[in-house]
Amino acid sequence: FTALYFLVFRFLILKFKLATPGREENNSEVKLYTKKDYKEKQANTGTPVIAGANRYTEQAAVYLEGFGGRDNIDKVTNCATRLRITVKDQDQVLPDDIFKGAGAHGVVRNGNAFQVIVGLDVPQVREQFEKLLAVSD
């Protein structure tokens, strides 16, 4: 039955052009940024680069900026693979490409509630996110 399932679902996905992970219609090219590029971008935008930052801190910093800064964050939680954020003003949230550029696999939007699909590293990202919120106070 495995071969039958494979053939049926492959046909349906290709026939109806269903968006599955890795098959999104993204017209923008994927660019891999070096640490030097990231630090230059942060210097140009005025966002401070945290000394000794690891990839989780950098990822959390981009997410915080993407959600409109600490003043726009209402609540932060997480599940096994998603960072769940409730914001005060959804109009301040940047497009999904910003989050995907920082390593997110996707973003789910539901009113003022957002879920950034991070993966199994989400506890570390949330910890750094909360530290950035505390530092910003």
Molecular shape: globular
Bin the strand percentage. 15-25%
Percent helix range: 40-55%
The CATH topology turns out to be Gyrase A, domain 2
Q: Encode the helix/strand succession as letters.
A: HHHEEHEEH
Total separate domains: 1
Sheet with most strands: 4 strands, antiparallel
Structural class: alpha+beta
Q: How are the SSEs placed, and which strands pair?
A:
Elements: H1 2-15, H2 35-45, H3 55-66, E1 73-78, E2 82-87, H4 96-101, E3 106-110, E4 113-117, H5 122-136
Antiparallel strand pairs: 1-2, 2-4, 3-4
Helix pairs in contact: 3-5
Question: What does this entry look like structurally?
Answer:
By secondary structure, this protein is an alpha+beta fold. The chain has one domain (31-136): Glucose permease domain IIB (Gyrase A, domain 2, 2-Layer Sandwich), CATH 3.30.1360.60. Helices cover 42% and strands 16% of the residues. It has helices spanning 2-15, 35-45, 55-66, 96-101, 122-136; strands at residues 73-78, 82-87, 106-110, 113-117. Strands 1-2-4-3 form a 4-stranded antiparallel beta sheet.
Q: Which properties best describe this structure?
A:
single chain; 137 residues; alpha+beta; Gyrase A, domain 2; 4-stranded antiparallel β-sheet; 42% helix; globular
Task: Give a brief description.
This protein is of the alpha+beta class. It is built from five helices and four strands.
